[in-house]
Design brief:
The chain is built from six helices and five strands; from the N terminus they run ααβαβαβββαα. By secondary structure, it is of the alpha+beta class. The strands form two sheets. A three-stranded antiparallel β-sheet has the order 1-3-4, with no helix packed on it. It has a two-stranded parallel ribbon with strand order 2-5. Strand 3 and strand 4 form a beta hairpin. Helix 3 packs parallel to helix 4. The chain starts with a helix and ends in an 8-residue tail after the last helix.
Amino acid sequence: MRNELFTTIKDAGLLCFWYAIHVGGLHANHQMLVNLSKEFREKVLAIGDGAGPRIKGGSPRDKPKSMHVELFSKLFNHLAVFLKLHGQQGVKVEVRIDQVDDIFVKNIKKSAKEFLSDSRDPIKLKGFDTVEKKKVSQDYEIKITRPPELSFSGIVSDLNIKFCNDGLVLAADVLANSLNHLFTNRTKDTLYTSLNCKDAIVGHPLAACLNVLGESDLIDDVIYRHPKAST
């Protein structure tokens, strides 16, 4: 079935998108952020007599990012960039996936909205005033000023998440498994290198159909770089 599927994709000239993350890289990035947060809090508490700031916030939650949400978010971002490069506007995107929980759907829609928008949802920070002994809060709103060439506003007019288990979902699973097999069976000197570049898919049967944005991913392949990757 795998070979028949790949032949069909090649004969039809279908363009395929993928995104991959090293599990070790995702964990290392999370641990780095946790350590930075801890160091910052320790420095704040060391100010003056060690009592720290007047307004104290809650302890940060040591909750790592969801691998599935990150994978979808980066894959969607690549699709949006592709549409931007080809001058598309108002595209309706349908995502076909197996049944997932509502939290996952909420998070991937939020991520897509943030990438496409030049603004962010208001942020509410809560804390405790140690002098007046009461709870306090403050709202913040972030606006991003992007040059036209980096604005993705209006490119996607609708994002529809559809739960199904049809042939397209099966084909996507087969492609994902084949890429995972390729990445996990690389030679020792390339095993921990970048996953989202031309070099990473050399040798895959659908290499000519897999869309690559440039020679490499200079952002996420660095952010989620595997700790065992050579410098």
